[in-house]
Amino acid sequence: xxxxxxxxxxTKAHHLTLELYRVSRSFTREELYGVTSQLRRxxxxxGANLAEGCGRRSSAELARFVRIAMGSASELDYHLLLxxxxxxxxxxxxxxxxxxxxxxxxxxxxxxxxxEETDRPExxxx
Length: 126
What we know:
Layout: H1 8-24, H2 35-54, H3 59-85, H4 91-119
Helix pairs in contact: 1-2, 1-4, 2-3, 3-4
């Protein structure tokens, strides 16, 4: 079992979530239960799934939750685009969030590779 707070990818995802909550406060009230909610839920899901995966007993279970976090990151990517295209998010906030999300996605990919590597049985030679 790992402490999710020790993971750099969780820290980065958490920071992105806090930033998106701040940015989405200025979205129109009519979008509170639409794009605003979906954007926030997708962002929260990344960190929450990393936390849940770290609480599991096996590397295989952790890997499953990292994959779910990756799916949430892809969903968040779309919600960011939609927010920008609807004029809810200004270009600077979009660019900053999109860049942070790209970094989180790369970190998730690396973390998944690392977790899967530790779950592979060693091949005995000879």
